[in-house]
Amino acid sequence: MRLPRRHTRRAVLLGDATHCINPVCGVGAYASLPGAKTAAESLRETDDVTSAFARFESGVRPFTRTAQSITARTAGLSTGDAAPPSRRR
Questions:
Q1: Domain coordinates in residue numbering, the chain
Q2: What are the boundaries of the region Disordered (predicted)?
Q3: Which of the residues 14, 20, 32, 44 has the least number of beta carbons within 10 Å of its own beta carbon?
Q4: Greatest Cα-to-Cα distance within the chain, rounded to the nearest angstrom
């Protein structure tokens, strides 16, 4: 699931709902803890929830992109299509 944004004014996606890590990787809890910490810090730094969600998203986006790329490659290996989506023809 690749979304342009993971938050609205009053709601934000967290954990697996935002990065969809391959369950075989065994890093679900590892990924959720830093995300929870980033969310808590973002909310603590401002009273503006929308701003806090945007800050949270910018903090976790690099990890999310990496996790999604790893999951796509893993799925490709298991299906015999190891080329990343951007290189498939």
A1: 23-77
A2: 65-89
A3: 44
A4: 49
Instruction: For residue 60, give every residue at least 6 positions away whose Cβ sits within 8 Å of its Cβ, in sequence order, or none.
Output: 18, 19, 34, 35, 38
DSSP secondary structure of 12-35: B--THHHH---GGG--HHHHHHHH
| Residues 63-74: tens digit of each pLDDT | 878 877 777 777
DSSP state of 80: T
AA letter at 47: D
Angle at 44 between CA 39 and CA 49, to 5 degrees: 70
Rounded to two decimals, the pTM is 0.63
Choose among 31, 14, 39, 29: nearest CA to 67.
Answer: 31
Picking from 52, 46, 61, 56, the residue whose alpha carbon sits closest to that of residue 9 is: 52
Coil, helix or strand at residue 7: strand
* Residue 51, token pair as written in the block: 């701003």
